[in-house]
Amino acid sequence: MWWIVAGLAALLVSIFPESLVAAAGYLGVDVPTNLVFFVSIATLFFVCIQTGAELTSLEAKTRRLAEALAIVDERVNRLEAEHDAVDKDTKPAE
Amino acid sequence: MGHARTLVVMPAYNEEDSIGGVIAELRRVLVEVDCLVVDDGSRDATSHVARQAGATVITLPYNLGVGGAMRTGLRYATDNGYQNVVRIDADGQHDPANIQDLIAQLDMADIVIGARFAGTGDYEARGPRRWAMLLLAAILSRIARRRLTDTTSGFNAFGPRAIRLLAEHYPAEFLGDTVEALVIAARAGCVITQVPVEMRTRQAGVPSNSPVNAAVHLGRVFVAVFFALVRPATAYSKGM
Predict the structure, then answer these.
(1) ipTM beyond 0.90?
(2) Which of A76, B3, B151, B195 has the most crowded Cβ, counting Cβ within 10 A?
(3) How far is A74 from chain B (nearest CA, A)?
(4) Comparing C-alpha atoms, which of B59, B46, B53 is closest to residue B17?
(5) Do B68 and A69 touch (CB under 8 A)?
(6) From CA B89, how far away is CA B159, in angstroms rounded?
């Protein structure tokens, strides 16, 4: 999301360099390049926060998966063991 | 399988030396409970030893921490229709004979803590660790509106209501897990009480936290408790 915003802004500034100067003048930034630095750092900051939040939710999801997997694993083993035992009982002795 | 009303959950991480003895003792003392070992991604033979000793074993694919192991155990309990869950440590610190005392209290409470400083036994913590524990106990007592002296105990019994709640919300943070779980439960309206228990020395293995780590963890406990307190109570509504 933030990458798209940053990308569009960079594209706009590259095609119309005057827009950067105009924007800097409008916002009261004396050196237009400083506006680029400021916006870049701000964007990176937001990207960082977003990534962190994403990571937290992914961690929670893998954790749930691991728990569910372990429970299912135990269940499969148990049912397989029961199944094998039944097989042995019902098969006619040769 | 699954006919007992009580499930004993033992989170275990690299406890191959002690877990066999603990399970054997448990089965000797209490025949009418099922025993579930949640092997938290151990790198030793914990799973194998536990299975040999006759416990049901769930092996987590990687280390999730005590909180993750406990939540797995609680979810297993809800899936299989257990009424009560007792958490006990795999290192033999807790006396299985006390399990009955904890379960007996579940008629009147949702969570029963096996408290280490409540008169019985001679377990004692010192210095900053002791102050932190006293402070936590004071905070928890306020939230639970009941006098609780040992909030970091790993010896707890959970009733049906607490199981449903915590299978969903059992926190993951190490060492913070017990305290935070109590805060969550208390805020969701669970009744928490305690029973004095005696502590024994560990049968094997090293304590999972050195003094320095313990200090760091206690700091995290306070942060975790703080967040558990400021979160809106509706966050815990699922599962109740």
Answers:
(1) no
(2) B151
(3) 6
(4) B46
(5) no
(6) 18
pLDDT tens digits for range B86-98: 999 888 888 888 8
Instruction: Please give, rounded to a whole number of angstroms, the shortest distance from the CA of A88 to a CA of chain B.
Output: 20
Q: Tell me, yes or no, if B67 comes closer than 8 A to chain A by beta carbon.
A: no
Q: Which of A66, A71, A78 sits opposite B64 (nearest CB)?
A: A66
Q: Please answer whether residues B95 and B200 qualify as being in contact, where contact means their C-beta atoms are separated by less than 8 angstroms.
A: yes
DSSP state of B80: T
Residue A67: both structure tokens together: 């728990």
Give the C-alpha separation, A20 to A35, whole Å: 8
Measured between alpha carbons, how far is B216 from B82 in angstroms, rounded to an integer?
36
Let me know: does B167 contact B78? Beta carbons within 8 Å.
yes
pLDDT-derived band of residue B208, with 50, 70 and 90 as boundaries?
A: low
Q: Burial of A10 by CB count in 10 Å (0-12 exposed, 13-18 middle, 19+ buried)?
A: middle
Q: Map residue B151 onto helix, strand or coil.
A: coil
> Mind listing the pLDDT tens digit for each residue in B145-189?
888 888 778 888 999 989 988 888 887 765 567 788 888 888 888
Structure tokens at A3: 């990458």
Q: What is the DSSP string of B98-157?
A: GHHHHHHHTTT-SEEEEESSSSSS-----HHHHHHHHHHHHHHHHHHTS--S-SS-S-EE
Average of per-residue pLDDT across B91-106: 86
The four Cα atoms A20, A22, A27, A31 give a dihedral, to 10 degrees, of 60
Q: How many CB pairs (< 8 A) connect A and B?
A: 36
Question: Which structure tokens are listed for B140?
Answer: 């928890």
| Tokens of residue A54, six digits | 């994403």
Tokens of A9: 């802004």
Q: Are B78 and B116 in contact (CB under 8 A)?
A: no
Mark yes or no for CB contact B68/A63 under 8 Å. yes
Cα–Cα distances in Å, from B234 out to A14, B12, B111? 49, 32, 20
